[in-house]
Amino acid sequence: MNSFGHRFRFTTFGESHGKALGCIVDGVPAGIKIDEEFIQNEMNRRKPGSNKYATARKEGDVVEILSGVFEGHTTGTSISMIIFNENQKSSDYSNVKDLFRPGHADFTYFNKYGIRDYRGGGRSSARETAARVAAGAIAKLLLKELNIDVKSGICEIDGIKAENFDFENVSKSEIFALDTNVEQAQKDAILEAKNSHNSVGGVALINVKNVPIGLGEPLYFKLDSQIANAMMGINAVKAVEIGDGILASRVKGYDNNDQIRKNGFKTNHSGGILGGISNGDDINVKVYFKATPSIFIEQETIDINNNEVDCKLKGRHDPCVAVRGSVVAESMMALVLADMVLLNMSSKIENVKKVYTKQ
Ligand SMILES: Cc1cc2nc3c(=O)[nH]c(=O)nc-3n(C[C@H](O)[C@H](O)[C@H](O)COP(=O)(O)O)c2cc1C
Ligand SMILES: C=C(O[C@@H]1CC(C(=O)O)=C[C@@H](OP(=O)(O)O)[C@H]1O)C(=O)O
């Protein structure tokens, strides 16, 4: 069982080759209009089997809401949602039943638990991220009420930077014509890797607009630490950068500081976060996905009895997980922000009084 969040909480259940996956979202205020078409559209943006850049496993990823919604609005009780698996092909995994795929979670799951659902990696499969996107859609509906807008896009695939995207200088560029705009050279790199039975990695950029000042709980639940935790919890994510990230360690203070005028910050090197608290500027976060571990080139590994063996995989895999992963990262950002919005309501006595005293 995984749990996430303080006020706006969610947990997911299910395995990739089991009967179903789902989530429970708790702490959602009553009265939010639930747009089921919006939720399904979010699911469709992530779902597998939609194009040649994704795994061929075809799933409808249709979400059924089981609780917490009445006459189209949240009731303040926990919202549970279920997504039935339709297209498991577990026979693809029969030859890796007793061996560990390099780069996947097989080795660590088996050593930690002594038992492993080898079918698609079970719980370690990113199929679980479907449930996160369902939960994230509820968070987005809350954020929509506050006009907070979370978007994502691909800024790099296999080391190829998006042309319209000034990756080295995020804070000055007009980057946010986003929405998973994978450019042609990047698409070609994905197909080239796929055709040579290999895979590529990539970087997604998450941008949030209309962020109120004050989100984030110092000192131990800083907004940036919560975002990093959420992003690093996504399968295949190996690094997270807030704002200019690594670049901030390479430039001088004068060039990194965002100077302030009465109508706002002149630049946004910080990624919209200072002292763990949102400063009202856009939040910009880059999420680095490694190349898909399951590839179709023969590799060396060991089996559960420590014998050295060759590993030749079958099945259906994403040649580049960053593309669909960007939607997951966007959902995780929405979940963190929804949580922080609710937590922040009690940061000042004026806000508490607004709720508890008659106006
Ligand atoms: C959206 C998405 C799709 C993924 N698809 C695959 C896949 O088809 N095959 C695969 O081996 N790994 C895939 N992964 C990555 C694995 O789930 C991940 O590498 C594995 O669980 C090991 O975890 P780690 O890479 O975080 O250490 C995907 C990840 C994401 C986010
Ligand atoms: C099913 C999804 O992606 C899966 C993620 C995944 C992995 O190892 O993470 C491996 C593949 O699983 P399978 O071999 O069972 O098809 C992908 O297809 C999904 O995203 O919904």
From TrEMBL:
Cofactor note: Reduced FMN (FMNH(2)).
Pathway terms, separated by semicolons: Metabolic intermediate biosynthesis; chorismate biosynthesis; chorismate from D-erythrose 4-phosphate and phosphoenolpyruvate: step 7/7
Obligatory cofactor(s): FMNH2
Pfam families: Chorismate_synt
Protein origin, superkingdom: Bacteria
Keyword NADP assigned: yes
CDD domains in the cross-refs: Chorismate_synthase
Record keywords, A-Z: Amino-acid biosynthesis, Aromatic amino acid biosynthesis, FAD, Flavoprotein, FMN, Lyase, NADP
GO biological process, one term: aromatic amino acid family biosynthetic process
GO molecular function: chorismate synthase activity; FMN binding
EC number: 4.2.3.5
Residues where FMN binds: R123, S124, S125, N235, A236, G275, K290, A291, T292, P293, S294, R316
Protein name: Chorismate synthase
Native source species: Arcobacter cloacae
